[in-house]
Amino acid sequence: MSFDLERPLRHPDAESGPLMTKRARWLVVLGFLLPGSAQLLAGHRKLGRAGIIATAVLVLGGLLALLGLALARVATLSFFTNGIVLFVLQWLLFGYAILWLVLGLDTLRLTQLVRVQRTWRAPVALLSVILTLVPVLGAAWAATTIDAGRNLLGDLFRGAPAVEPVDGRYNILLLGTDAGADREGLRADSISLVSVDAETGESIIVGLPRELKDAPFPEDSPLHPVYPEGYCDEVNNYEVVDGGGYYCFTTGNLNSLVTELEDSGSPSYTGMYEGAPASPGIEATKDAVSGATGLEVQFYVLVNMDSFSNLIDALGGVEMDVRERLPIGGDAEGNGIEGWIEPGKQRLDGFTAQWYARSRYGSEGGDYSRMERQRELQAAILAQMNPANVLLKFQDVAKVGGQLVETDIPDTMLGRFVDLAAKARAHDPVNVELVPPAVDPENPDYAAIHQMVADAIASASATDEGGE
User: Fold this and answer.
1) What percent of the chain has pLDDT over 70?
2) CA nearest to 208, candidates 252, 255, 170
3) CA dihedral for 186, 187, 190, 194, sign (positive or negative)
4) What is the pLDDT of residues 273-290, one digit of tens each?
5) N or C, where is the chain less crowded by C-beta within 10 Å?
């Protein structure tokens, strides 16, 4: 009985054109649906078993991954963002690609095209090639994408233990810089603190003006003894004055801390923040924002606005609602303007979007409008980085990532933060803008600012509890 069942495939009547044609079609389709089955039925059984086992392992692995995402999302995401796991997975997929290519070519051999009816030879051959290349190219693309992701993660994130939230929240400093050849030192153009509930993902975004003065340092900060009354209430070249006071090398604005600590040459800063994950200037900025807002800053993400152009082009542009006419280039007197960004909803390419965020003249709100536009652009880019869009253009995005972002977030927390990012999409963030008239950057009331931040957290939590 078994011999009769397998005979049309393994021992066909080679002189029957219709039978050989039907057999060829079945082998090609079966070989695609279950790689290795064509060999098991009509060819080398050992090769067929290898193909079926490999396919079963791949399917089982995919099902386990889906089950893990459903039952243990954070652990599964952490597993698949581990560099070693990604390296192994990358080469497994390359191995699958080679195996499927071998199986596909062998299946085409097993069809015995010369025995197939003449009118069916080309269609069978074409179908066999297509159904062979689809999984091979798919596996090769997935492997190269994983390689790009692994390299990006290795470039961006540091190896360090995970960090627990503070009072149930993760607090991340977001710095937007517009580094260029004509700019000395690193001075952030936009400064925001993102505070996310570690369980629900509800968040607040605190926008701090770069000109904020007298930022207080927490008592455990190495800068607290240097500036016990707040950062740089005097402006001068650094020197120790009678009574032990200190003058600043820079303007004393919040965004000048990197230059102050790293470029002033002051002996007062020697050895500060040694062994910290970020540079002394970034660590000092984290401390200043902690003191200013009352929230302990745990991590920072520095976004180079100058590289936004490449990222936006990689994503295919970004949708923005431009509310006022903005110049491209030019100065305060209107000289040297190269063009205009007109009001209205539109898709901006990288160059235009960069000037949307960079333009500092012509806005009614001046520099505060510029800060707001930069945060709007950052939010729009994040909104456009949906899984389908990023996956489709991932390798282009990955190439830009290393130029665009630097951070001190540990790689061990990637799974947790990816999960939190998904939860955060379900909530509208509460925005707190520390700008006039609510806050005077030249003479800020930090007790009042702390209360504004606390009220925002309470508001976000209340909205989450209300299910809105």
Assistant:
1) 85
2) 255
3) positive
4) 998 888 999 999 999 999
5) N
